[in-house]
Write a structure and sequence with these properties.
Length: 190
Amino acid sequence: MDTTSVMFTGVGGQGTLLASRVIGRVLLDAGFDVKLSEVHGLSQRGGSVVTYVKYGEKVCSPVIDKGEADYIVAFEQMEAARWLDYLKIGGKMLVNTQKLPPMPVITGAAEYNADIIGKIAASGVDVKSLNALELAEQAGSARAVNVVMIGALSNLLGFGGEMWKAALRECSPAKALEINRKAFKSGKEA
């Protein structure tokens, strides 16, 4: 049985968990068997965070191995490079252009890789980038980067617009709902 795999990658505080919950809700409403898994890492210290979403007629495990992800949604450029090996041949990658330097870069022990998105594209990967931070700020909060990225992903996955609205309403904190609606729309239009 075919399943589809989506990975969300980012650093602690970028909202990968909310993103996986929103898409999970949409997929359940669309009638799929859905499994989610979270890998926190050092999420509260700005470390790498990954969430897996698998869906299909029957899903046995949420874990995505190297070369299995149909989609990778990276909320930060270096995280896109870190998890690239997990993308299957013919898979698609969405990358936020934002750079959040890790501690070795901050301390000067390492340099932030130059032109990560260009290098990913040059390797033959179908990669689309957008400045999700700018769009999130225009929607009302820099914290809505994750929802901008979900909006962009919705173009690739399809499913009815009402399902996305319902999932945002169900999964968003009440105080962030209006900003998240705007952020989703911005990502979808980008």
